[in-house]
Amino acid sequence: MNLFFIAQVFVIPVEQPSVRVEDGKAIVSWTRVDTSVSKYDVYRKVEGEENIVRIGETKDTFLIDTTLIPGKTYRYMVRSFAPDDSTFVDSRWSQPVTLQQKQEQAEKRQYILGVIARERFPVLIFLLFFGFLFFYYYNQARMGKEIFIRRLAGLDAIDEAVGRSTEMGKPVVFVHGLTGLDDPTTISAIAILKYIAKKVAMYEIDLIVPNTDPLVLLASKEAVKEGMLEAGRPDVYREENIMFLTTQQFGYAAGVNGILVRERPGATFFMGYFYAESLVMAETAYSIGSISIAGTTAITQLPFFIAACDYTLIGEEMYAASAYLSRNPVEIGTIKSEDVAKVVLIFAIVVGVILASLSQLGIAEHLYEAYKALWSATGG
Amino acid sequence: MQTTLPVLLTFIMGTFMILMFFMPQFANAESLATRWTTIVWGFALLLGIDSLILGHLRKIRKGGAQSIHSWGLIIAFFATLLWGFFAWWKYGNPFAPQSSFLWMFRYVYLPLDATMFALLAFFIASAAYRAFRARSMESTLLLIAATIVMMGRVPLGGAVFVAFFVAFMLMIGTYMLYESTRYTGFDRFIRIIIGLLFIGVLIPLMNPSYAKSFANFIPGFADWVMQVPNTAGQRGIALGLLLGGIAFSLRVLFGIERGYLR
Amino acid sequence: MNAAVRILEQLGKLDRRLIYALVFLATAIPLILNIKLPMPVSPEVKSAFEAVDRLKPGDVILISTDYGPSSAPETQPMLEAILSHAFKKNVKVLLMTHWRFEGLIMGIEGIDKVAKKYHKEYGKDYLVLGYRPGGTAVMIGMAEDFRNIFSTDNAGKPLDSYPIYKEIAGDDGVLNYKDIDLLVGLEAGSIGNFWIMIVNARYKVPMIMGTTAVITPEFFAFYQSGQIEGLLGGLKGAADYETLLGVVGFASKGMVSQFSVHVLIILLILLGNLSDIARRFRG
């Protein structure tokens, strides 16, 4: 009896690997039969040719071959290695696969119900689910159910900032972000602008609105005019105070800084989607002693605004702003649907994390084995 | 009528664009709609330029010390415009490699653009100096995390961080010990303990090899701060943003929210 | 004692112009002195380097320079380092931009400089596709055939009139994402997100990104999920790449400036906090 024989490690081979072709690549996958395997090598041969090529190694149970040539037919084989790499065993060769010519490839898009692109179907499901929540809470609010929304300090401070500006006899400046009307953030900013215009009209001070997008310029003019009309003071509206500067990012920042330094506003608002110019403008507002209130959905610029401004509307607060300012219970009610969707998403994330962890640890496979064993034991 | 029509239009176009997202096979219709936007935007730009030029002409007419800026703008605007047309006529394309307009763009406009951006460095320093004050538990944590990341991403950062760390802990420790003199009984005792703890943490660092491994640990830890807690926070905000955005869009689409309209 | 406390308290109210002067000196002096400090390489840069290093001679990378001169100090060293690496390995390079003429100028400036150093020939080893407006529409249009979008290169000649085109377009004569072995996005704005969400997600083009420090945190999520193979974040990312490549470029020198400015900022923060404590001492 050879003592070394005991030390020899055996590996159970992988069964026949399965192959499918997607986007011009072959995805070779197989089932892990022996958990002690240290790595898998994947080999390929072209139908009608002699050579066998090793295309790569992996610790996973799949490998993607990106080097297919259209029109050729391939077979794949998986070699499993023992923990110390001393031994290996080969699987059977896979069924042959062929990469179609490119024109045929492009046609291969899958649809659900004939029209909806398959890869976007999950988005549709989520949208429908969220839409359901949305209208559920919309109806609840319409039927008079009161829905609580926490105070948003940044929005409550608007009145205070405009009031202080009036006491000092200084104008108010409202700075838009860089995105256009196709960004919901900008729409929300315009609603806030309208609210500010209403307040400003009551106190009869100047409201200066520099713009970087010509369409936003037009919308801003309308919003300010309308806000002042609602306040009963259309005479306060001054068209020349709502101006276009430039579409260039830093040209705009320079222009805004110029206005801030020359006009020395008592209150400055930064509302919209900003990029690197955020702090350049916000620090200038601070240096001239203006109260500044910012609101942005640009995650990367939030730290700058929080550091430099007195109040900051963070992300979704910006979207909630116009509903909040309207004090309309029905609009506020729909915000509740966000919270419920958030809870569902958190739940989904937690379940996903647990499942991913189980599979990483290999526990899921054991559970599956146990389940199969149980199933066969019960004669099912 | 004044609100019904815009809300109806918003609803129709919004729903159309959403449908197009799920039916990419009709991508042509989608790109047609985006092309419309481009055309409208182009004409609106004329209105924007009109607003810019008229506004400054008005300021020039009003006179005063500030009108010099308006003169500068008007002259620069038309000089650039004419130069661009000239280069177009002469080289066929204002941005052709040998064009004099390109030269202007490269050596006048681009440095100005870069200068504005470079101001950021100065403003970051002054904003950090002003805002990063350890006034609460949260702001202290933020301060420490910021220091670790700033030091972890530069050469020799670890070593400098250790120096800062020692200074910081000594500072807090001494402050706590000083504070304790104002209190009596248990309040004093707890402050002395905290102060001694802060200073006591530094004792192992007196061993150079411990200090060195602490310094080596910083860059990796900075990466971890960026990749794990920072990414987690960003994802949280991003998810909230996404839901807020959908809810807001639905409110606009169905005309529930008309704050931006009349 | 009281005098010391008062001085400390004053340190919290430094004039911002003094701070600006200090920042200027801390940036400029190390650049003039021309020194390099050693530092460990971040793992995400290492995997970006490896993604380029894996390429074989004749493979193709597509570089998109989506930044202007304002962010060039961070991204231009990345462009030059990656180009040097690619040219050293005899990899073919295509260059394009979504960032108007600013991006084009930065790209051409970088590629001309590096190509000259490695004696690479325009049209044979590299090609500048140029700028086309349209953003995501450009990305989608390129999926079928680059010629749909770039009927000519930046010099105005048809793409297929160059020898490099015939070489990389392969047997079918069509150049699209399937011929691209690696896409390098050098980003200063949100275009990188679209490269990932559209071109990587739909057409499975392997990608690495080089981003300005401000937007880097956003891209870590994509790096972790494996959507991009590597990430060069800010000047540090560029300097790490230079270290891996074994050259001392602008980024490595700039890191010393960054070091001194970071130290300065932390010192300023400490001063501010000391003055806060001093005020509480008195109050």
Strand content of chain C: 5-15%
The global form of chain B is: extended
Q: What's the helix count of chain C?
A: 12
Q: Structurally, how many domains make up the residues of chain C? A: 2
Morphology call of chain C: elongated
Order of helical and strand elements of chain B = HHHHHHHH
Task: Tell me the count of domains of chain B.
Answer: 3
List SSEs of chain C in N-to-C order.
HHHEHEHEHHHEHEHEHH
> Distance between termini of chain C?
15 Å
The gyration radius over C-alpha positions of chain C equals 23 Å
Report strand % of chain B: under 5%
CATH topology of the largest domain in chain C: Rossmann fold
What do these coordinates show?
The complex is a heterotrimer of chains A (380), B (262) and C (283). Chain A is of the alpha/beta class and 380 residues long. In chain A, helix 4 (153-168) runs parallel beside helix 5 and helix 5 (184-203) crosses helix 10. In chain A, a hairpin with a 5-residue loop joins strand 3 (39-46) and strand 4. Helix content of chain A is 46%, strand content 20%. Chain A contains 12 helices and 16 strands. Chain B has 262 residues and is an all-alpha fold. In chain B, helix 2 (27-62) crosses helix 3. The longest helix of chain B has 46 residues, at 208-253. The model of chain B has no long low-confidence stretch (mean pLDDT 85). By secondary structure, chain C is of the alpha/beta class. Chain C folds into 2 domains: 2-35 and 258-282; 43-247, Rossmann fold (3-Layer(aba) Sandwich). The chains are: A alpha/beta (380), B mainly alpha (262), C alpha/beta (283). Chains in contact: A-B, A-C, B-C.
